[in-house]
Amino acid sequence: MFIREYFQLLFPWLLVTLVIVSVISWSKLSQFQKGWQKLVLLALSAVITLLPVHGLSLADYLLSLNPNFSIGSLALVMVVLWPKLMGKSLLSDRQLFTFCLWNVVISLVLFSSYLGLLSYDLYALGYNFSLWFIFMALITLITVWFFNPLSVIFIAYIMAFNLRLLPSPNFFDYITDGFLFLMSLGLLFPFLLPSRRFHQ
Amino acid sequence: MAGQRAADHPWPWRLLAAWLVVLLYFIPGYQTYFSGPQKPWSDLSIPKSLSAEAGSERPYFSEDFVNLAQPGVICHVAAIAVAGKDRLICTWYAGSREGAPDVAIFEAFYQENTGTWTEPRVLLDRRQSSLELKRWVRKVGNAVVMNDQRGGLWLFYASMLGGWSTASLNYKVSQDQGQTWTPSRKLLLSPFFNLTSNVKNKGLSLSQGALLLPVYHEFLRKFSQVLLFRLELAGPSYELRRMTHTGGAIQPALIPRGNKTLIAFFRNAAGSENRQILTAVSRDVGQDWSKLTDTPLPNPDAGFDMIRTADGAILGAINNNFRDRSDLTLVLSQDEGKTWKNLYVLEHTPGKEYAYPSLTSTRQYYHLTYSYEKNRIKHVMFNEAWLEEQGAHVH
Question: Domain tally for chain A?
Fold first, then answer.
């Protein structure tokens, strides 16, 4: 319970850091090349995220809008933030495209089922071991066998679920959430432009 | 490219990584099937519930109000439950209008032997809810109070950031019959921004301290779900199952039949004319449900409640017409909901509204609360002898 309370603050912190880094990079104020600059930035974003104003912090407000940011959301924000901070990509364009496509497809199927647009109750399979877990295990095995970097994210899903790091008891909530769906959809759009090429 | 990448890594490493994945997925499998903290849903059963005893007492019927009407204040969604020996708790929400930010959840206690209600007091408002949840709460709404098998009293309530379709559920527990409550905890019941879950009728307490709470959803489609809530040493755990897929069947009332079977009766929010109360059956304590069928009872898209009586009949409090909520009637079925007879008309004033009844029973009496013209909560109390007397008059 204790770890869970703090773990769920990780996503808001990374998201705020990403917003700050993006704004500063866009305004060309700094490039964050020195280590101390990065540390100051992370500390500053932590203060902005966690400092309560009138009883609630920015993290609390973000968690009010989406109370369960999935491991997928955490991974995607890390993937987008990492090159901006460290100057090196964690995933190639093709891998990012694949990850976003996976997020959008799995979200569309899950949300359609949950919101009553499909008659099958897929979400119910996420509480206890089911065929869905076997499906995910097979996908994870394939990515692991080919040493695809996405395998790290797929392993993180099940590790976090086993450790119960998120407030939700459902495995699907470790894989996706509404925010991840929207963010992945947004990141997929540039790939649809004819001028866009995949960079390895 | 993938093949080339794989070839860069010797196969023992790949094998090791693959075994790690198998091991990680083995853990939830092992917990589910062999030594998990949770017993399977099918191991749960429905204990025989407390219901008013049939005795040689004289028929008893009384009516009173839980609170006083105040100008500009609406009261709605009353719920009643046992809170100690001969004592009951009633909760409802009140404010300037439905879904207004000033809406608060109120509570009052009733002592059966003196026949008096305590002064209503605020149990929870949006500020307190926000403080307890550490989340932004714009409004609070429907609340339902119920008992578990271990003497605990549970309050499930909706909080919202916008309209009703943004409702999500929270709970509080009292171990001293409603004197003090634990801070609110949020339930995560939807993968899509936790939208949208609401409550109307109380649930059932099951064996092993578990609870079964009927929940309804009204974001894109209207349907019902059932929440299995278990108390574990490591904290509460819960899982949700869909009860219905189509038909706008919401706000189910759960009636136990035996120790595994449940009958659910649903408000009909399908939008068609001449709607009837819908029903479905589960034979595995709520895990799977049959298709919906119509009952002969009309439903003007309004909430109702039902309860099993001491002699095994089903007693309901419903708006007994197809149009509006201007009447409230007690109905009774002796054949598990197939046929019904009207027992007693509690209210009938055209143009007025009598809505959202809640039923419970103690050892001696049945208690009914409902919103009376939306400005007060009315309380009706009767015993088994009175019910039998009404039944004898109906042919």
Answer: 2
